[in-house]
């Protein structure tokens, strides 16, 4: 990887012994700060609040926070990529959420406080100590794919202790959430496999449900029900996902105009295509191209 290109890691951890004041900063990620020894006066979101060993400061993305140590203070900070955190929340509440875009709004409703201070106590902190230390050690080794699952396991172990202490808002299910598709793992019927194959082989085709049902000799309602049970989404939603997959590949690998790529994968309306792309990926096609082409240019 060349100069200017930096690896993207969903989780990083660092331990610092600080004696001088740390000016308030904000990060585009979720941050957990574990006070392991000493005490400090917080600035920014908690202006004037004292923290001591055994407490954890939890900050949502773009929340300003700094601190002034009262003597030496040891803190371990865990940084969690915002999209990665949203992805975990999506799976945690998969029975309520239809996609990651909805999970973003759900996160704002569930965690209404952008900053929290949790009192774990020193005994609980001692329980976390070996996990925190290992996370810090793995982070210092750089981006190692073979250690990815171990870092996830350590993060989840830490969160399993921390999250029960966090303040949340009671969940109120919307009508859409109450009617969300409940997917269960089961053998996929041949008819569903055939429909999925057709959609993947010809994503640009103007598919109608009646056309797909006719191929597998089922009624439209039967075909839709069988497909949704197998893949957790309707055939039309599945087709949108397939088109987005093709769109992301062409955005990465070609210099074709965004509008032309959209038509190539089957969307004639740029506005509709952009909305579907953002719903599934979380950013616009232009943002996706920019983010995924710049590292490759730097490496070149």
What does this molecule look like?
- The chain has 300 residues and is of the alpha+beta class.
- The protein has 2 domains: 155 residues, Jelly Rolls (Sandwich), CATH 2.60.120; 110 residues, Arc Repressor Mutant, subunit A, CATH 1.10.10.
- 48% of the residues lie in helices and 18% in strands.
- The N terminus and C terminus are likely disordered.
Short description:
The protein is of the alpha+beta class.
What order do the helices and strands come in, and which of them pair?
Elements: E1 11-18, E2 22-25, E3 29-37, E4 39-44, E5 50-52, E6 55-59, E7 65-69, E8 73-81, H1 82-92, H2 100-110, E9 115-119, H3 122-140, H4 148-162, H5 175-178, H6 190-201, H7 209-215, H8 220-231, H9 235-253, H10 258-265, H11 270-281, H12 285-299
Antiparallel strand pairs: 1-8, 2-7, 3-6, 3-8, 4-5, 4-7, 6-9
First-to-last CA distance: 8 Å
Count of the domains: 2
Task: Describe the largest sheet.
Answer: 5 strands, antiparallel
Q: Which fold name is given in CATH as the topology of the largest domain?
A: Jelly Rolls
Q: Architecture of the largest domain, CATH level 2?
A: Sandwich
Determine the structural class based on helices, strands and strand pairing: alpha+beta
Whole-number mean pLDDT: 88
The backbone outline, from C-alpha atoms, is elongated
Summarize the helix and strand pattern as letters: EEEEEEEEHHEHHHHHHHHHH
What are the defining features of this structure?
single chain; Arc Repressor Mutant, subunit A; five-stranded antiparallel beta sheet; elongated; disordered N terminus
């Amino acid at each position: 990887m060349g100069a200017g290109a930096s690896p993207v890691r969903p989780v990083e951890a660092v331990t610092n012994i600080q004696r001088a004041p740390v000016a308030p900063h904000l990060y585009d990620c979720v941050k957990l700060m574990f006070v392991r020894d000493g005490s400090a006066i917080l600035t920014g979101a908690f202006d004037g609040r004292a923290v001591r060993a055994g407490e954890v400061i939890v900050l949502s993305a773009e929340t300003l926070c700094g601190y002034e140590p009262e003597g030496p203070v040891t803190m371990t900070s865990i940084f969690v990529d915002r999209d990665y955190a949203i992805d975990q929340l999506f799976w945690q509440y998969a029975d309520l959420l239809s996609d990651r875009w909805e999970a973003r709004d759900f996160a704002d409703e569930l965690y209404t406080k952008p900053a929290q201070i949790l009192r774990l106590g020193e005994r609980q902190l001692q329980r976390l100590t070996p996990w925190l230390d290992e996370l810090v050690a793995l982070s210092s080794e750089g981006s190692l794919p073979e250690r990815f699952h171990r870092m996830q396991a350590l993060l989840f172990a830490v969160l399993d202790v921390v999250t029960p202490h966090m303040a949340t808002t009671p969940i109120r299910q919307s009508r859409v959430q109450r009617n969300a598709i409940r997917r269960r793992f089961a053998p996929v019927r041949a008819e569903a496999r055939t429909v999925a194959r057709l959609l993947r082989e010809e994503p640009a085709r103007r598919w109608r449900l009646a056309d797909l049902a006719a191929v597998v000799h089922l009624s439209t309602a039967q075909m839709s029900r069988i497909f949704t049970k197998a893949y957790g989404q309707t055939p039309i939603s599945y087709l949108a996902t397939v088109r987005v997959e093709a769109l992301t590949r062409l955005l990465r690998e070609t210099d074709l105009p965004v509008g032309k790529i959209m038509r190539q994968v089957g969307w004639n309306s740029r506005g509709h295509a952009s909305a579907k792309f953002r719903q599934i990926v979380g950013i616009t096609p232009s943002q996706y191209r920019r983010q995924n082409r710049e590292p490759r240019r730097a490496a070149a």
